[in-house]
Structures are given as structure tokens and as C-alpha cells.
Write a structure and sequence with these properties.
- This protein has 506 residues and is of the alpha+beta class.
- Helices cover 38% and strands 19% of the residues.
- It has a seven-stranded mixed beta sheet.
């Protein structure tokens, strides 16, 4: 080889602007680093404080992890693509996520120390200086030298040990996202290792499961000194519509085995619901999701391709916590690197996806049957109201009753195929209207006086034709509309004679 290989400066552009399409991922990268620093202390809990300053277009993220000494800070925060982290333990290990802020801001500052006896060290990256370089003509080492600086920070009110990231002068195109506190809170709750809300009915059982298999790191993340910590988005129910909230019923857990050895490759939990339809994405809970070290990988659609009917992924709520560190997230952390261990995981997830799909189809079928039952009960009620109204001739009313009572066995047959309290209530309702129809006396006099007595037989005959042509509820509505229109144009005196509304002469 005549000349030694050179890593071009374009490499820096690829690991910053070329890596991230969603600005919010920078929060994931820095919280992930904080989680590793806190876990390195042997702790399963720690604090992260995020300050969002829209006025100055600045974000600071401070954690109480181990921090870095001055020498470590210079070495670890300037080197690119090299990390001292252990990929079998740590959540991040490639040494590129720390530069994610360069994709969305003008300056990036890391400030840290390991003990109160020494001043903090600051490593700064200048994104503008990096952009002004012709990266096609310089190597990566020169680009780093021209855009990164180190300094000692004057002692002040700094924690004894800490690590702080400052993302300064956020780019305009990313500011509306990165500086939006509500969007940031929702993203952190969905992706990061934060606690479950006490209102989530399965939180205790789920917490015990995770503690039994993982280190279950949980961070106390607060934004802008808010007293309310960030929590996972699961609540007491799922608001599918304004009028219907689906409940969490039970939790199912499974251990996914490795292809070798006895240790599990992953653990899975599913929160079973009535599977009443697609869960709104804005809630942040839909889909079968993946987590490593309690950090989410990808989105709610990460395993959607393993469902034969992908739409059913949006009907379920569940997570797969991956324990086998040979299943490695890719560089963008939106999926996993290929390999036999990942294929084993996909095979198991595919089988689980089929079971979820079966539940969804069964629930959908049951809802369709119950809708048919509701329609049948509504028809029985309308037939009862119409038969007792006196609008029909006795023969037409009797024929209506006989026809509707013949429908009752079919309704009962449907109810025998479904389960739960609602079918029991429906059976009682069906029995009630069947009994009322059977006991009804249809020989009573007409219940309307808006039609001349000489015309009532003809009108009732017409009503009989309507009843034979339309469902009872539609027939009842039409008959009452006709009678209302007739009552607005005619009055009947006490003797039964028809009288037109009198109009005074001029």
C-alpha cells in the first residue's frame, strides 16, 4: 500500500447530521449516557435534570452519575467512534451518540468532574466551524482539531460529581421540536427508563417481573424544575374515543429462550385489553415494543413486519426487554443487527404476533355479534312500541309480533357464542320483550284522532303496508311523521267530524 488510509472529514458529517432524522433523539442519546453513568455506580436509580430555555435556544441535561476526570473527559469526549463502554453491560457503546447535538445546534458543550476537589473540565464542539471546513479536503483528525476545544471551568456552584451537556443555539428547523416542553416530556416518557405511573393497574406486577430479570434502572427525570417527574405514559385505561375507554384486564408474561444456554434471550409482557381497535399513536403506548437496558429501541412499529396483518400491532400493548447482549441495536437504534440470535428472537415474536392477531380477530368477531344482538334488541323494542301504539289493524299488529318473536331464537344463539356480563344482561332484555310481545292485546282502539273516522280504516291499511315493507323502527318513525303532518293540517271536533282550520275573511 503506497499511502496510509485516511479517514476523511466527511465521517463527522455522517455521524452527526447524517445519523438522525428526528431531533428528539438527542434527548435519548444523552439520557442513555446518563443511565450508563448512573448504573456504573452500582445504582438502579438516579437523577437527570433537563432545562429547556426557549429564549436563548438552549438545552442543558445534567445527571448525577460518576462524571469524568479531566483526562477521561478529553480522551472520551473528543475521540469519535471509540468508546470504553462494555457492550455487554452498557446501553451505548459506539462513541458517536454524544455528538448528536451537532446535528441540531451551533455549539455543544460537555462539562464534568468526578469529585469536588478538582475544577470541572469542559469540552466544546463548534458545529459552525465544522460546517465551514471543506470536509472533502481534510481528514477527520484535522476536522476535530479545528472544531473541538478543552478548558477548565472556574469553580462555582457545581455538584461534587456530575456530567452536563449544553446544546446551545438550537437550529431554527429543530427549535419548535426540541424546545417544546410537552413534546419532550412525551418523548422521554415513551422512550427513557422512567417509572410507571401509580395509576397504571398493572404497575406493581410489572415492576416485580422486571426486577426479577433486569437491573431495572429507573431515572428521576424532571424538566425545568418541575415537581412532577417524567413517567411512562400508561394510565388507568386507554381512551380509544371520547366516549369509550378500554381497560387493562390482565398481564401475560413470557420468557423467550436463547438458541444456546439456559439464560433467557428476552422477557415479554402483554397487557391484555378488550382489543377494541387501533390505539391512537399519540398516547405513546401502542404496539409491541423493544427495550434494552430499559431504553426503547425504535418505535411502536419496530416489530410490525412480523405480524401477518400489521394493523393488529396497533391494537396491542406490550414490550420485549432484551437480555441477550448478542442481540445488538444498530447504529441508528431503530432496529437490531442481523445474526442468528436476532433471527431466534424474531421467530418467537412472529409466533406471539400470530396469537395477538388471533385475539384481535376473535374480539372483533365478538363485537360484531354483540352489535347484531343490540340491533336485534332495538328491533324488538321498536316492534313492541309499534304493536301497542294502536296505529295498526289487529291483524297487522299480530303479524308483526309473530315475525319479531321468530327472530328471538337467532338472537339467543348469538348470545350463547359470546361471554361476559353484557350477554347476560342482553338475555334478560330479550326475554323481557319476548314476554311483553306475547302478552300484548292488539285489539285496542286506534290511538290517533287526527284522521277522520271514515278514513281511519284506509289509513291503517296503508300503515300495514308500511310495516310489511320496513323494519319496525323505520316504520314507526314514518308513521309518526305522517300523523304529525296530518295533525298540522286538520283538527277533529268532539263528534269526530273533520274540520279545516278556519281562516278569517278580509
Amino acid at each position: 500500500m503506497a499511502d496510509p488510509p485516511v479517514l476523511g472529514g466527511e465521517l463527522l458529517r455522517l455521524v452527526t447530521a447524517g445519523m438522525y432524522d428526528n431531533p428528539l433523539v438527542l434527548y435519548r442519546e444523552y439520557v442513555q449516557n446518563a443511565a450508563d453513568a448512573i448504573a456504573a455506580q452500582g445504582s438502579s436509580a438516579g437523577c437527570v435534570r433537563i432545562t429547556i430555555d426557549p429564549l436563548n435556544s438552549r438545552i442543558t441535561i445534567l445527571d448525577d452519575g460518576t462524571g469524568l476526570s479531566s483526562g477521561e473527559a478529553v480522551r472520551r469526549l473528543i475521540d469519535v467512534g471509540r468508546s470504553s463502554k462494555d457492550r455487554s453491560i452498557d446501553r451505548g457503546f459506539r462513541g458517536i451518540g454524544r455528538l448528536s447535538g451537532l446535528a441540531f445546534a451551533e455549539e455543544l458543550h460537555f462539562t464534568t468532574r468526578t469529585c469536588g476537589d478538582s475544577p470541572p473540565t469542559r469540552v466544546s464542539w463548534n458545529a459552525r466551524a465544522l460546517r465551514e471546513l471543506d470536509l472533502a479536503l481534510v481528514d477527520a483528525e484535522t476536522a476535530i482539531r479545528e472544531s473541538a476545544t478543552t478548558s477548565q471551568v472556574a469553580c462555582g456552584e457545581w455538584p461534587e460529581r456530575f456530567f452536563q451537556v449544553t446544546i446551545d443555539r438550537i437550529n431554527r428547523h429543530a427549535a419548535s421540536t426540541l424546545l417544546n416542553e410537552e413534546r419532550v416530556r412525551s418523548y422521554l416518557g415513551e422512550v427513557c427508563p422512567v417509572p410507571l405511573a401509580a395509576s397504571f393497574p398493572l404497575s406493581t406486577e410489572l415492576g416485580k417481573l422486571l426486577e426479577g430479570y433486569t437491573d431495572h434502572l429507573v431515572l428521576d427525570i424532571r424538566i425545568n424544575d418541575d415537581r412532577q417527574r417524567v413517567e411512562r405514559p400508561f394510565r388507568d385505561a386507554i381512551p380509544l374515543t371520547d366516549d369509550f375507554h378500554a381497560s387493562f384486564e390482565t398481564i401475560e408474561t413470557r420468557v423467550i429462550p436463547r438458541i444456546d444456554g439456559e439464560d433467557p434471550a428476552a422477557i415479554l409482557w402483554l397487557a391484555h385489553t378488550p382489543y377494541s381497535g387501533s390505539i391512537p399513536r399519540r398516547l405513546g403506548i401502542r404496539g409491541l415494543r423493544a427495550r434494552v437496558g430499559n431504553m426503547q429501541i425504535g418505535t411502536d412499529r419496530i416489530f410490525e413486519h412480523l405480524f401477518q396483518e400489521p394493523r393488529f400491532n396497533g391494537w396491542c400493548v406490550g414490550e420485549i426487554h432484551i437480555l441477550d447482549r448478542r442481540i445488538v441495536p444498530n447504529g441508528r437504534r431503530d432496529y437490531f443487527e442481523a445474526g442468528p440470535h436476532m433471527r431466534n428472537l424474531e421467530n418467537h415474536i412472529g409466533a406471539i404476533a400470530q396469537e395477538i392477531s388471533s385475539r384481535c380477530r376473535q374480539a372483533s368477531s365478538q363485537r360484531n355479534k354483540l352489535r347484531n344482538v343490540d340491533a336485534g334488541i332495538h328491533r324488538l323494542k321498536a316492534a313492541y312500541e309499534l304493536a301497542r301504539s294502536g296505529y295498526l289493524r289487529p291483524a297487522d299488529a299480530d303479524a308483526l309480533i309473530e315475525g319479531e318473536r321468530e327472530r328471538v331464537p337467532a338472537i339467543r344463539q348469538i348470545l350463547e357464542q359470546v361471554r361476559g356480563e353484557r350477554p347476560e344482561t342482553a338475555l334478560q332484555t330479550v326475554a323481557h320483550y319476548e314476554s311483553e310481545l306475547g302478552a300484548l292485546d292488539t285489539g285496542s282502539a286506534p290511538a290517533f284522532n287526527t284522521v277522520p273516522s271514515g278514513s281511519r280504516a284506509a289509513v291503517q291499511s296503508a300503515f300495514g303496508t308500511i310495516v310489511h315493507s320496513l323494519p319496525p323502527d323505520s316504520a314507526l318513525d314514518l308513521i309518526e311523521a305522517i300523523l304529525k303532518q296530518m295533525s298540522e293540517g286538520h283538527t277533529v271536533d268532539e263528534s269526530g267530524a273533520d274540520a279545516l282550520d278556519a281562516t278569517p275573511e278580509n
